[in-house]
Amino acid sequence: MAPIVIGTRATPLARIQADLVARRLGELGVDTAVRAMSSQGDRSLGGSFAQAKGVFTGELTAALRDGSVDLVVHSLKDLPVEDEPDLVIAAVPERERPFDLLLFAPGAETAGEADASEPAPALASLLDHGDDALETRARPAGRAFAPLPMGARLGTSSPRRQAGALALRPDLVCCAVRGSVGRRLEWLQSGAIEALLAAEAGVLRLARSGELDERAMDTLGFRLNLRSWPCAPGQGALAVQVLRGGRLDGHAAMAALDHPPSHAAAFAERSLLGRLGGGCLRPFGAWADARGAGPEGPVLHEVHALIAPDDWREPAAVGEAPRAVGAAASAADGTVDLDALTERIERALGGMVAGLPAGAFSQPPSAAAGGDAGAPSVELPDLIVTTSPTAVRRLTRRLDPAVRVAALPATAVEVFDTPWPADRIDLNRPRRQWPWLLVSSPNAARVVAERAARELVWGRLPWCALGEGTARALLAAGVPPNLAARAFGGQEFARYADRVLDPHCPLFVPHSARGGATLVEALEAAGRQVTAWPAYTVHPNDELRWPQGWQAAHARVLFTAPSAVSAFAASGLDWPGSCWAIGAATAAALRSAGAGNVTCAQEPTAAGIERLWLDEVGADPRETE
């Protein structure tokens, strides 16, 4: 028999996984050769492109179909749930540990509410745990995330991990760091992110192969408990895929490669996801434990699942915890019925209602607001926000309906329908020197996300958000940034870029025609190679007026951007009696424009606005009479 040609992705981890299969086949007396190839996903560092379905598997399955390879080795979690009629998963070798690891940047773990009795162990110690100690040494997810400081940047490109983390800690900022496990650990060590979520199976395989250095092995972290934090369906398992009806379909070597308990557990997890009508990009986790053997094979002992609704980004993007549904079944209950478990999950998802129910507060809005006794009797809102009604509803969802909120749009965004300089993108340079797309504001976030949906090359680039508000705007658009810089202005970002980005990385900066020059000048002064262009403009609302009966002296206005401040100042309107700012840049613009009584929210989120309300007004909008 001619040697079996094994197809695999060209990444270090994928090569290790293919070598594991080749070694096992060699033990069975089968000659093999490994052929590595680059996948579409491996040729992208960006968030939007990398989240497309099948980008890590398409080239491999094409090679299998054209006969270039005889079998391919996938991480089972990367395979679409839907069956492909001409392909078959012939074997699932014994599964590696399915846990997720939460790893901390140096110094970050001690900044929060750490449990001193259970300090985070080093990665080397975590990986060295014997199989019998894995569950007992795993930490419940809520306790594992507790040590992280407020607003910590969490590295993960997985919607499951993003939704799960934000359900526990809505203050976190998700960064879709990509690249090899080693590269992601480098981001962590550099301080570009404060924490990283990674599959233990991949980290363990790399460590056993000597691919992780001593510094990486000293990283502190926790193993997450599978009952509180179920893994991705099939996580830790490999899939050996062959052509249906081909020379390896039904081959004795494939049967010998297969580990029935691993196969049964992983396919139960995938089956549950399939029943829910989801794919690998749905925020869904499931862990199944298959033990022993019944008359027809391994028996499911227990199954745990956790899912967030499809609109989970809406609350998460404004700093509110997305809801999640957990469900479990075990043999102790008599049987593990996946259909019944699916029905329970679907009922729970169907019962969720986004936002606060109307009429939830019995006191009238004026009483809830704790208004000024000297205020006029006209219907002046309790809070006015200088943006569109849709954005107002998102930003004030924690206040409404107890507080009367109104929109006073100060600006409008006009997107320029002109070509972007895609011809200047050079992806032939080393991956560490790939261009970065700098997203400088929430307005820019919406413009960039829409452009990347039409021109995929922009989705292939890694994106860096300037500030938390921009990062959350990208999350709302479905494309979390790869990195989020804590920087106010161009000089601070230039220092950040010098610390975390290769000095040879070009920076692409789409900006507003009314701004952006200061940022670009600071980056160029720092020696960065910058390509910048006006991608949109922000128009002041020429008809900005106080509605009849509203009196500025009694108004409380939340300004959402420096451009809104400029528009308000240009309108000639009297400044409101109370000026609230959604961020430091907006607060600075208010003071510079001569506004008085300026207060800044601690963070540009719904939770930050709620805290500002409590601090300034002193009435809890969530209390009922």
Mean pLDDT: 87
Portion in beta strands = 15-25%
CATH level 4 superfamily of the largest domain: Periplasmic binding protein-like II
Report the end-to-end length measured between terminal Cα atoms: 81 Å
Number of domains: 4
CATH class of the largest domain: Alpha Beta
CATH topology of the largest domain: D-Maltodextrin-Binding Protein, domain 2
Please report the total strand number as a whole number: 24
Q: Flag low-confidence runs.
A: 354-377
Helix content: 25-40%
* Main beta-sheet annotation: 6 strands, mixed
Q: What is the helix tally?
A: 23
Q: What is the radius of gyration computed over CA atoms, rounded to a whole number of angstroms? A: 27 Å
The main sheet orders its strands as 16-21-20-17-18-19
Q: What structural class do you assign from the helix and strand content?
A: alpha/beta
CATH architecture annotation name of the largest domain: 3-Layer(aba) Sandwich
Q: Overall 3D geometry? A: globular
Give a brief outline of the structure:
This protein is an alpha/beta fold and 625 residues long.
Can you describe this structure?
The protein is α/β, with parallel strands linked by helices and 625 residues long. It has four domains: 4-96 and 233-350, Periplasmic binding protein-like II (D-Maltodextrin-Binding Protein, domain 2); 100-223, Periplasmic binding protein-like II (D-Maltodextrin-Binding Protein, domain 2, 3-Layer(aba) Sandwich), CATH 3.40.190.10; 365-410 and 544-617, Rossmann fold (3-Layer(aba) Sandwich), CATH 3.40.50.10090; 416-540, Rossmann fold. The chain has 23 helices and 24 strands. It is globular, with a radius of gyration of 27 Å.
